[in-house]
Amino acid sequence: MARVGMPRKWVFVCINERPQEHPRPSCLRRGAADVFEAMREETGRQGLVDVKVVASGCLEPCMVGPGIYVAPDDVWYGGVTVEDVPRIVEEHLAGDRPVEFLRIGREEFALSPLQGRTDLPPGMIPPA
Ligand code: FES
Fold first, then answer.
1. Collapsing DSSP states into helix, strand and coil, what is residue 10?
2. Which of 5, 39, 42, 114 could form a disulfide bond with 126, CB atoms 3.0-4.6 angstroms apart?
């Protein structure tokens, strides 16, 4: 079935990549490309022509990636694996019931790669 009109939901999957040596992790290095492909395939397999899956740059919850944002539901997921995808598609994208154990919020966004490090240059104060 062809896509018709404005999507009912958008699924933004971060596939940002940073260099290996960068202090902040990036979702691509945690399997996000496979998650993105699995999400596209599974939404198609389940016939969700009104859900748009979009590859995204950094969405900010880098410390718990791969990060996914579902709009207009305002639901964030972190640490998503390929194995999680069918459940997200069936329960949330089709059934409108977010998968609670994968949800993240303000606490995860506040995590910092600088926290706990003792080798930082003078003047660089890690966020609390
Ligand atoms: S690199 Fe994916 S959320 Fe930042």
1. strand
2. 114
Ligand 1, pocket-test mutation among 13, 15, 58, 64, most atoms within 8 A of CB: 58
Alpha helices, H only, 1-128: 32-45, 85-87, 106-110
Domain of residue 26, CATH code: 3.40.30.10
Q: Which atom of ligand 1 sits closest to the CA of residue 14? A: 2
Encode pLDDT of 62-109 as tens digits: 999 999 999 999 999 999 999 999 999 999 999 999 999 999 999 999
SS3 104: coil
pLDDT digits (tens, 9 = 90+) for 69-81: 999 999 999 999 9
Q: Does some domain include residue 96? A: yes
DSSP 13: E
Residues spanned by the domain of 69: 9-105
